[in-house]
Amino acid sequence: MVQAHRPHAMGSDTLYRGKRRGGTLHRPICRRMGIYELVLGLVVSNGVIMLASYFLGQKYYPIRYPLKAIAGYSLLTAVLYAIEQVIATYAHLGQFTSIALNLCLLLIFVLVVLKIEVKREDLRPILVKLKLSKK
C-alpha cells in the first residue's frame, strides 16, 4: 500500500507544495521565453527552496554542516565547468574528444575529493587489490 506524502519536519510539506506549483508555473512561460530561461528559473527556485530548508532546519534541528567543504567543492565544480565550456567553445572538439575531455575533468574532480576526504590508510586495501601498492 502506497502512503500519501507526509511531512517529516516542520515546513517540508509547504516546501514540497511550493516546488510542485513552481513546476506547473514554468510550463506556460517556456513557450514564450525558451528552454534556457526555464532551466534558469528552475535552478533559482530549487536554490531558494534549498536555502529555506536549510535555515528552517537550522532553526528547529540544528546540524553543523561542513559549509567550507561544500563551498569548496561547488567552486571546484564551477571552475571545471568553466574550463570545459571554454575548451568546447574555442577548440570545436568532436564528440569523442569532448567525451574524453569531460571524463578527464570528472577524474580530476574525483581525485581531488579522494585526496581531501579519504585517508591513505583507508585506501590501502583497495590499492593492494588493484596491485597499485605493496602490502
Quick overview of this protein structure:
The protein is mainly α.
What does this 3D model show about the protein?
There is one protein chain. This protein is mainly α. The protein is 79% helix and 0% strand. It contains five helices and no strands. The chain has helices at residues 12-33, 35-60, 67-91, 95-117, 120-129. Helix 3 packs antiparallel against helix 4 (95-117). The model has no long low-confidence stretch (mean pLDDT 78).
Give the helix proportion (percent range).
Answer: over 70%
Question: Topology as H/E string?
Answer: HHHHH
Largest sheet: none
From the alpha-carbon coordinates, what is the Rg to the nearest angstrom? 21 Å
- Indicate the mean pLDDT: 78
Strand composition percent: under 5%
Straight-line N-to-C gap: 51 Å
Please work out how many helical segments DSSP would assign.
5
Basic shape: flat
Structural class: mainly alpha
Q: What ranges have pLDDT less than 50 throughout 5 or more consecutive residues?
A: none
Number of strands: 0
